[in-house]
Amino acid sequence: MLNNLLNARRLAQNRALYKQYGLRKNIYSPLGSRDFAEHHTDIPWIDQPGALEKLEQNAEFQSFDEKLKEKIRRFLTDGYLILENFSPESDTEALNREVAAQLEAGKTGFNYTGRKIFNFFENSALADEQFFRNPELLHLLSFLLGKKVIPFQSLNFTLGSEQRAHSDSIHMTTEPQGYLIATWIALEDCTPENGALFYYPGSHRLPYITTADYQSGNTKFTIGEYSNRRYEDKVEEEIRRHGLQKQSFLGKRGDVLIWHANLLHGGSPIRQPGATRRSMVCHYFAEGVICYHEMSQRPALLHK
Ligand SMILES: O=C(O)CCC(=O)C(=O)O
After folding, report:
1. Ligand 1 centre from 162 Cα, in Å?
2. For residue 47, what are the CA distances in angstroms to 63, 213, 283?
């Protein structure tokens, strides 16, 4: 709550949003899915019944080339799509050089995970303009969510994350549900040995897991110490229960994978010790929805 008060300016827009969505709550208070007795039904258009028919009738969709149209159709059922060879080699190469140089000079560093460089776009015009705020990507993401996207955060990796399966929606959550979308950009070729990204096609259609679905250990005043681990155990249980099939993304440098807010994904073990796996993940919320962090029960602090 103190942190929320310290960031009052960045939360001010929530006043109108809380009113719009009937949430009777102080904008500086903690926020979680329990605050929404019922979820609002105005979820992204691609998640609504009859989405495929609406897509086919959409004028903008009709203007896309056949290849992209087919990828978008598949996004509805699979929860991800891949844009091959999207970023030119000159850009991925230059970004890798910038990350390495800034790490070397101590101008950037890894967060507590030891694997993630947080918001590198703030240090690099190239990361910002060609990757995080790439106009073509922003356009496609906004089309998919049916609302303009707000670039929220970026993560750069030099090694695979080896993170267990999870959905971004436990970390970056919205009301109505589903207004988050992410890009994963390969900055070098991915192999079965260097900790490839993995995901479970179709898992985005499962109900959103919230802190009410596992023993988070949260109290009125504190966040449970083992909440993340127990959440990931719960995800594993759901994967087994639904017999979900894992796939790995063996993308080539420059490929971009876009995933749905609720797609289960993670990082494979690194089988070749020391192998690099340079990549960048960017997360986007949509405008005009309530954005928060379910796991840590906080309203999200948007940049602008
Ligand atoms: O790149 C990876 O290995 C996983 C990244 C990820 O899970 C995420 O950013 O949510």
Report:
1. 8
2. 21, 22, 19
- Asked whether 172 and 180 are in contact (CB, 8 A), the reply is yes
What atom of ligand 1 comes closest to residue 160's alpha carbon?
3
Pocket of ligand 1 (CB under 6 A): 155, 157, 160-161, 163, 168, 197, 265-267, 279, 281
pTM over 0.90: yes
Determine the straight-line distance between the first and last CA of the chain, rounded to whole angstroms: 20
Q: For residue 210, report the phi and psi dihedrals to the nearest 5 degrees.
A: -125, 175
Across 77-205, where does the E strand assignment appear?
80-83, 117-118, 149-157, 173-175, 180-186, 197-199
| Percent helix, strand and coil across the chain, each to the nearest 5 | 35, 20, 45
Ligand 1 pocket mutation pick from 131, 155, 172, 260 by most atoms within 8 angstroms of CB: 155
Q: What is the pLDDT of residues 182-217, one digit of tens each?
A: 999 999 999 999 999 999 999 999 999 999 999 999
* Rounded distance between C-alpha atoms, residue 168 and residue 173, angstroms: 8
Q: Which of 229, 279, 291, 212 is nearest to 249 (CA)?
A: 279
SS3 category, 133: coil
**Pocket perturbation via mutation, ligand 1, pick of 115, 167, 184 by most ligand atoms within 8 A of CB:** 184
For residue range 103-141, what is the model confidence (pLDDT) as tens digits?
999 999 999 889 999 999 999 999 999 999 999 999 999
Taking the centre of ligand 1 as the mean of its atom positions, its distance from the CA of residue 112, in whole angstroms, is: 15
Domains and CATH numbers, the chain: 2-299 (2.60.120.620)
As a whole number of angstroms, the distance between CA 247 and CA 59 comes to 33
Sign of the dihedral through C-alpha 93, 99, 102, 104:
negative
